[in-house]
Amino acid sequence: MMNLSPETLRKVDEVIPHYPVKRSAVLPLLHFVQEDQGFISDEAIEWIAARLGIEPINVYELVTFYPMLRRKPIGRRHIRVCRTLSCALMGGYRTCAEFRRQFNAALGEVSPDGEVTVEFVECLASCGTGPVVMIDDELHENVDAAKARALSAQIKAGGQPAGSR
Amino acid sequence: MPAPEQHRLIFRHIDEPGYSADLACYLRHGGYEVLRRAVARRPEELVDEVKKSGLRGRGGAGFPCGVKWTLLDRKSGKPIYLVVNADESEPGTFKDRHIIHRDPHQLIEGIMITCFANRVERAFIYIRGEFPEGARILERAIAEARAATFAGPNILGTGYGCEIYVHRGAGAYICGEETGLIESLEGKRPYPRIKPPYFPAVLGLYQCPTIVNNVETICHVKHIADMGGDAFSKIGTPNNTGTRILCVSGHVRRPGYYEFDVGRLTLGQLLNEVCGGPLPGRKFKAVIPGGSSAKVLKFGERYKGRRKVGAELVEYDWGVEDIPMDFDSLAMVGSMGGSGGVIVMDDSVNMVEALGNINAFYAHESCGQCTPCREGSLWMQKVTARMAQGGARPEDGPLLKSIADQIAGRTICAFGEACAWPTQSFVAKFSDEFAAPARAGARPHSDAEPELV
Amino acid sequence: MSPPPAADLVTVNIDGREIAVPRGTNMIEAALRLGIDVPHYCYHPKLTVAGNCRMCLVEMGMPAVDPATKAPVIEPATGRQRINWVPRPAIACSTGAVAGLHIRTTTPLVKDCREGVMEFLLVNHPLDCPICDQAGECKLQEQATGYGRGYSRYVEQKNVKPKRTLLGPRVMLDDERCILCSRCVRFCKEIAKDDVLGFTERGSYSTLACYPGRRLENDYSLNTVDICPVGALTSTDFRFKMRVWFLRQTNSIDTGSSAGANTVVWSREGAVYRITPRQNDEVNDTWMADSGRILYKAIRAPDRLAAVRVGGADSALDFAIREAAGVLAGGGVEVVGSGRSSVEEQFLLRKLRDALGARASLVARIGGGDGLLVSADRNPNVRGALVAGLIAGLPQARLDALGARIDAGQVRAVVSVGEDLAEAGLSAAQLARVAIVYLGTHANATSAAARVAIPTLTVFEKSGTFVNQQFRIQRFAKAVPGPAGATDDLVVLARLTAAVGGPSLGGDLASAWAAMAAEVPVLAGVRYDSVPDTGLLLDGSPWAGLPFAEGPSLHYKPDQSRAPGGAKP
Q1: C9-106 fold
Q2: What distance in Å separates the CA atoms of residue C10 and residue C19, rounded to the nearest whole number?
Q3: Would you call the peptide bond into A131 cis, given omega within 30 degrees of 0 as the criterion?
Q4: Could you tell me which of C559, C181, C498, C156 has the C-alpha nearest to residue C348?
């Protein structure tokens, strides 16, 4: 059975009536469930489908389409480095390589110590301060290799690196 | 001629010390006064103001906003929806982010005026999933606005009501395409719709008449309602009115966001004066003026032709630096104003690799619905990747052009053009780099040659 | 039926040729009427328009008018109205006919569009033709030949996707071949009403799939195989069995129910390999139920009756006929006909009944109708028996009345054509009390108990007609010869009738029809040859009051004056 927290269930109930057609709530529900559980399981897909009166394939189609929705858990911290042109021009590839080196992490996989998942994602819409990195929900700007090392050290020390804003 | 001063209309309060995103701060700065005046007018008047203003969409297409509103099917009896496109994903663009995170009430006020003008009772802000904090900020702002009756069931006691809901995306650029956005909002895979017949103004969200407008565009609506369409139309240049936020990134000394009257400064003034010119020891090589979908401009090119200035036809002979930053001029030189994202590349850049980076973006983001874009975008990505790794062949440049030519104009949505134009323009303008493989042997990258793909 | 509304016709011009078509007709259909082929994949006349393959791109233009005066703009060189050709090509499938629409399909731009789309479709397509069932009826092959550039410029690695995925019990999926046209997804959602298929992943990695754990197993799953333009979806029953260019096509009818879906039987050298739907826009569109496709397996089933038998011993047909006539002489005979026999067979059986002075029954088969192409009446031709005059009212599922008469000693002999009396409710004791003459195709309790058992032909081995729920008479044709020991039902019935002292009838279609056209009122003036391939609606009003079991289904609404299930409201 789905073990969603009461808060998540409350958010689910609240959001569905925002839409004249229930199916529209599938993305919000996927976000809530992923925030609650860390990823989208088979059970979650079927639960969401039943809750909205649609077929599981209708939910599965979306989970495999959107890169932000994941089918497996990630590390404790989620590091997303931008790979698109402006950030790459400022050294984004080096930044990504540095994070991966710091945690011995393969792209898209949980690092061996379970601490991070490093992803190389598309434009994060802060191109003027590239290279940019999101660590969980926080945006970090001007992250060159040195700053990547510093942020990694903070993560390893168990801290919450403060975002740029 | 020196560059003009910025005209911070939309960005007035961005970077203002002490300015915060909450309602109290917005009210202290005169917030929601325009809404108060607007709801005392007839909705048709507001639509007229926007038409007179000449406002063109700021999301990328530059379509006249007033015309878009006029196309709405107001006779069907179906509810009319507003969808705010906050999916800002065009590479090189970073303006809506700041409005959302730091001056959300300006957007909310613009939304409410837009809704009132078009008799919309339910609006959705589709915000990209990578702005989670922005979504929270908007939800807080909406709650504040509702509590103060600037939004919600009975706005300022008029009896008119409109609800705004925030809807988060999950990492797909194609959700910035208006019909892809609508499909995503309906809970389906974001496959853009064929037009005809699915013009959003007639058959949009839930097959009801729908307006889809960019965040910045909606903010301009507020200012148009404030100063009037005529006054707005005098800002900027004819047919390219108002201000726009230019986002400069890449190889300049001072990248960032800058708001100017449209067409009142040239690309050269922007890059050399406002942004401080190239990095030390480097020279400008190429610039993409309107988001990565726009065709690249090569420094050293000349653009010649005739254009209308007032009632006259006037010759122009421009270098890259001379191009006025407005929609029409950039279109005339074979590029576009697009989203205002200016990406600058200097002489350290290997253009094959730069194109490889862009092609990888489009291959990742293609939704896959229609044949040319689905197969062509990945094919182009594979060719440029191979070339960047030292496997280039002499026929690859012409092959890339041929593939791109088979995509543009043949697809369901403008993503076809968006993924084809970079390849067409890079290959055409930097043909020598595409003909002679620069990375034969794939030597390692350095500061003098950044890794791009 | 009220006359159809006057069609709102508009004139369009395709490649310089004009044609008037109903407003809104799409340009693929309009071009087809002119004999012009507009290649396409995702468009299907019975599904919503998707517009994603982009193969049907054509040039379109509208006549030029002066914006101010609306006067036509005339081209000085030709004196004709100028056509403003739109620079961007448009998809023909979603371009609807409006007055003055001009289309060009032979320009260099259109040629380039087609070559481009073909090239893109083949870029990640596996070189599976040698092992792919679709070869010979593959749209990719046909259109690559007709409209492709003829060579490949692709030197990169192709995408790899799952091969040989069992999508459902009857459908196999080879994902690499899929061109993502979405016909199958639309079909399952719109026609089969089973929204079970979808596209997963994104971009060129998009992949057709079911939700893991679900299967494509509705009773219309094989239609996706028919409409798949490539070999991505194939029939597990037909896979690897035969190349389609060796197969002969014969028109037939699905005998699974009174819906009467039109079919094509594909055979070679006397063996049937598969059955597919045949288009009939009045009956089944382009669809049929999966259950009708496996009916051919009965042809070579192990319990197929192979030899004429009299008293349990193999015998010759002549002898059997004389024995049967002897059994049936002297009164007390009942006739049990079948709703699975053809109209001609039912007519000849009526002649036999009359000659015997006997009573005739049929055996009803009622099941749940699925609202599509399997109706509640699982006999294909009960109405044929009504039309032929073999019965006057609807049959029962059980022969209880006959059983009672047997028990009362009123029945000495029974002739059964294709019906197992035991399955229809007669007990072994009742079967034992009467002498049975059985005409049928497969062994059952009745054939075993019969005094005379004469093997006959399945629907695939003979020709004839059925009358479906719409009272539409439809022809089916012989696809393969019957087994050596079997005889055409018409021959047996004609000879039996003569042997019991009835009229001399030819045991063939022509003679049957000559008699039917003369003696059956609703068939007056109809000739077998004049029945079109899409069937002929008969006047069913003589039977309008009968409580037919069928509910609404594709192209069929029961008489509005009756409540569903047959009872009068």
Answers
A1: Ubiquitin-like (UB roll) (3.10.20)
A2: 8
A3: yes
A4: C498
* Mean pLDDT for the stretch of residues C59-69: 94
Query: Cβ-count burial of B103 within 10 angstroms (0-12 exposed, 13-18 middle, 19+ buried)?
Result: buried
R_g of chain C computed on alpha carbons: 28
**In the predicted structure, residue B111 carries a pLDDT above the cut 60:** yes
Query: Token pair for residue C171?
Result: 């459908």
Contact C272, C250 (CB under 8 A): no
CA neighbor of C89 nearest in space, from C70, C73, C114, C110: C110
Domains of chain A: 6-65 (1.10.10), 77-156 (3.40.30.10)
How far lies C467's CA from each of B67, C75, C384, in Å?
Answer: 59, 58, 5
Partner-chain contact B130 A25, CB within 8 Å: no
Please tell me the distance from the alpha carbon of residue A11 to that of residue A34, in angstroms, as a whole number.
13
CATH of segment(s) C309-459+483-512 = 3.40.50.740
Tokens of A149: 């090392």
**Distance between A87 CA and the closest CA of chain B, angstroms:** 7
Q: Which H or E run includes A52?
A: helix A42-52
d(CA B67, CA C385): 67
CATH code for the part of the protein at C126-243: 3.30.70.20
A74 pLDDT above the threshold of 70: yes
Q: What φ, ψ does residue C133 adopt, rounded to 5°?
A: -60, -30
Interchain contact A71–B (C-beta under 8 A): no
Q: Which residue, of B346, B371, B390, is where some domain finishes?
A: B346
Return the residue matching tokens 């493989």: B437
- Is residue B59 a contact partner of residue B176, using CB atoms and an 8 Å limit? yes
Residue corresponding to tokens 């929601």: B32
Are the beta carbons of A115 and A77 closer than 8 angstroms? yes
Same domain, B216 and B125: yes
Work out the number of other CB atoms within 10 angstroms of the CB of residue C397: 12
Q: Is A122 on the interface with B (CB under 8 A)?
A: yes
Q: At what angle do helices B415-429 and B396-405 cross, to 10 degrees?
A: 150
Q: Which two tokens stand for residue B84?
A: 């705010």
Sign (positive or negative) of CA dihedral A65, A69, A70, A76: positive
Closest residue in A to B257 (Cα) is A128
Please answer whether residues C83 and C77 qualify as being in contact, where contact means their C-beta atoms are separated by less than 8 angstroms. no
pLDDT at res. A163: 59
Nearest chain C alpha carbon to B376: C120
What are the respective helix, strand and coil percentages of chain B, to the nearest 5?
A: 40, 15, 40
A56 interfacial to chain B (CB closer than 8 Å): no
Of the pLDDT bands very low, low, confident and very high (cuts 50, 70, 90), residue B358 is very high
Q: What is the dihedral of CA B356, B357, B358, B364, to 10 degrees?
A: 100
Q: Are C202 and C174 in contact (CB under 8 A)?
A: no
Q: What digits encode the pLDDT tens for the residues C479-502?
A: 999 999 999 999 999 999 999 999
Q: What are the pLDDT digits (tens) for C72-86?
A: 999 999 899 999 999
CB C153 within 8 A of CB C161: no
Strand ranges for chain A from DSSP E: 77-82, 116-121, 133-135, 138-140
Do B44 and B152 reside in the same domain of the chain?
Answer: yes
Q: What is the pLDDT of residues C200-244, one digit of tens each?
A: 999 999 999 999 999 999 999 999 999 999 999 999 999 999 999
pTM (predicted TM-score): 0.95
> For position B258, what pLDDT does the model report?
98
Whether B123 and B82 have beta carbons less than 8 Å apart is answered as yes
Q: Which residues of A fall within a CB distance of 8 Å from C198? A: 57-58, 60-61
CB C133 within 8 A of CB C246: no
